[in-house]
Amino acid sequence: MTLAYENWLTARRWYAGRGRDLIDVTEALVTPLRDDLDLVLLDARYTDGSVDRYQVVIRWGGAPVDEAHADVATIGDDGGRTAYDALFDPDASRHLLALVASSETVGPLRFLAEPGAALPLDAPTRVIGAEQSNTSVVFGQDAIFKLFRRVTPGVNPDIELNRVLARASNGHVARLLGSIETDLGGEPYALGMLTAFAAGSTEGWDMATASVRDGFTDFTAESRLLGEAVATVHRTLAAELGSEPREFPLETLLGRLGLIANAVPRVAQYADVIEERYRGLAGTSFPVQRVHGDLHLGQVLRTPQAWLVIDFEGEPGQPLPERRRPDSPVRDVAGVLRSYEYAAFQRLVGHGDDEALAAAARQWVDGNAAAFCDGYAAAAGADPRATGELLAAYELDKAIYEAGYEARYRPDWLPIPMASIARLLS
């Protein structure tokens, strides 16, 4: 192939090279899956010496795979043929599913079906998340395939933890059905994963913000059930993968504080007090285990039967070893509590002087945070609130991260994490 990938790649939302000078994009691996279908790994090289590896499945054809997605799906032309992103072609997507179903090996690629998985080979398809960090294809009402766009060497935590939880019969994750994996240069790469599709589900963030929008209606029963679900996931991960004591990660939290305080003056004014809080936990040991690592209300789904925890990929932008590093379960609890704060106080963006609205938001947050922790304690046998300063430190760390994001991308939202930092320090 002699495709020029640069224009198409750099226009994708999942392209991570913005802010760096691109030298070129070259093919690192091309694996034919059939005459008109190739799985391609691309290396994007930058002037700072860094290299990012991306994945695309190409369908070669003479007509758009889908007029509605022609712009995002059309990669380019090569000798009279047009290359399209194959995920937008139902026939090509079903071919990938068939390879997984039969656990085929194609060149260096391993298509793996999980034991007992029944896959909907003839189901209609639809693409979701076309411009998110990964791209997913839903097959009917039964399965969803996620293709990882930016691929890195190492064990993928999303596949790894979903596999552990599914094989332990944990009812609070979507069952893992299959994966696509390979080895390059002696290192493993995860290319995609297939899970059961949670038909009829609603994202936790959508449910919470609907409650807020409808006048801060009662959401505490759902929050308690969510706390129970998260605790059950934590218990299974600890039972299957173990736990151990580890000292408070002082340097990690101080490193984030320093970076963001340097960029956000409003955080800098609290830096000394926050550092003092963190140093108060130095040398203290806490149980650590595998956790979600980036848990919030957008990472949970409510089905008619239960809450499901999804997307175990860890904190975005972190190196893979960091995303797989054991941490305190309190990290995930803090993420959910921060998410309640956002769900409620986003109502005040542009209305910061509305004291009645602020009071209603505070009451809603406190009630749901308490209900979540009550449910967690009931299922885990330990109340996360009993960790005291540890929970506060993880909430602070999350709020500091949020402040850095909001200062850069949504300045009008910066008061949300800043108010939380002030409250947590008071």
Describe the structure.
By secondary structure, the chain is of the alpha+beta class. The chain folds into 2 domains: 5-196, no CATH class; 202-425, Alpha-Beta Complex (Aminoglycoside 3'-phosphotransferase, Chain: A, domain 2). Helices cover 40% and strands 24% of the residues. It has helices spanning 6-10, 70-73, 90-101, 157-167, 204-213, 220-241, 250-263, 265-268, 271-279, 320-323, 330-345, 355-380, 389-409, 415-425, and strands at residues 22-34, 37-46, 51-61, 74-78, 81-85, 105-106, 109-113, 125-128, 134-139, 143-148, 176-184, 187-196, 202-203, 243-247, 285-289, 300-302, 307-309. It has a 7-stranded antiparallel β-sheet with strand order 6-7-11-12-10-9-8. A 5-stranded antiparallel β-sheet has the order 1-2-3-5-4. Helix 7 runs parallel beside helix 13 (389-409) and helix 11 (330-345) packs across helix 13. It is globular and about 65 Å long. One of its GO terms (molecular function) is kinase activity.
